[in-house]
Amino acid sequence: MRHCIALLGGSFDPVHNAHLALAGHAVKLLGPEELRILPAGNPWQKGGLVASGADRVAMLRLAFAHQPVPVVIDEREVHRNDASYTVDTLRELRDELGPEVSLVFVIGADQLLKLDTWHRWQDLFGLTHILAVSRPGFDITALPSAVARELQRRQASAAQLRESPCGLMLLALNLAIDVSATGIRDALAHGQRPLRDLPEPVLDFIEQHHLYGT
Ligand SMILES: Nc1ncnc2c1ncn2[C@@H]1O[C@H](COP(=O)(O)OP(=O)(O)OP(=O)(O)O)[C@@H](O)[C@H]1O
Ligand SMILES: O=C(O)c1ccc[n+]([C@@H]2O[C@H](COP(=O)([O-])O)[C@@H](O)[C@H]2O)c1
């Protein structure tokens, strides 16, 4: 059977329960041999990060401590100075892991809606599959036509993603978790303890290190 790695990139500022649900959904669908988490160092489309790379990595280690598959927290983007372009990361991973491994980059639907704005987005398909998972309010008719065209051309089953190295897309519509890092940062800054939205060890870490205005 082909080796399959599910990749979850993100700002993780902070990591929260929807990230865990997203990863869990990918693991359930694909049954990968590894789950690799890629915290961004410089997410160029966002206004900027609040917590440091080291703190975001520490929170990811706490959040993903107990998973049914081996987890790697891959810090390469945190240590890179330039913009965190996923295509650069995927090129490095391909060089390291070889042409045969199935790589599946997992994204939430908000990123699918702007996939055509990613750096060299058409090159992604020669490097990875894409598994996009819905978020509350996701409206498939709002997909940019170029993204909708790729989705139509490349749509495949989880088994097909597992059994080929790259080039396919899968849209999973059965997740609707209304949690965002923005909402959590706002709640913390207002003195709330959003324990329903993130794992308790992560919340403890945030409070111990006085992150996000705590
Ligand atoms: N509630 C959610 N449901 C599905 N996917 C999600 C959800 N929250 C985040 N994701 C996905 O997880 C990945 C990393 O997201 P990110 O770290 O930017 O979290 P976020 O909550 O979207 O952050 P922010 O509120 O700061 O924009 C992205 O692909 C994003 O689409
Ligand atoms: O490569 C790009 O141009 C690009 C543009 C936007 C987002 N991404 C990646 O998508 C993942 C989720 O991003 P975000 O901003 O939702 O945390 C993360 O790995 C980002 O580096 C990548």
UniProtKB/TrEMBL annotation:
Question: What does this chain do?
Answer: Catalyzes the reversible adenylation of nicotinate mononucleotide (NaMN) to nicotinic acid adenine dinucleotide (NaAD).
Pfam families (UniProt xref): CTP_transf_like
Q: Which UniProt keywords apply?
A: ATP-binding, NAD, Nucleotide-binding, Nucleotidyltransferase, Pyridine nucleotide biosynthesis, Transferase
What organism does the record attribute this protein to?
A: Noviherbaspirillum pedocola
Q: What are the residue boundaries of the Cytidyltransferase-like domain, all occurrences included?
A: 7-185
Could you say which protein family the record assigns here? Belongs to the NadD family.
Catalytic activity line of the entry: nicotinate beta-D-ribonucleotide + ATP + H(+) = deamido-NAD(+) + diphosphate
Class of this enzyme: transferase
Pathway assignment reads: Cofactor biosynthesis; NAD(+) biosynthesis; deamido-NAD(+) from nicotinate D-ribonucleotide: step 1/1
A GO MF annotation of the entry reads: ATP binding
User: Per its record, how is this protein called by name?
Assistant: Probable nicotinate-nucleotide adenylyltransferase
Task: Output the InterPro entries linked to this UniProt entry.
Answer: Cyt_trans-like (IPR004821), NadD/NMNAT (IPR005248), Rossmann-like_a/b/a_fold (IPR014729)
Single GO biological process annotation from the record: NAD+ biosynthetic process
EC numbers: 2.7.7.18
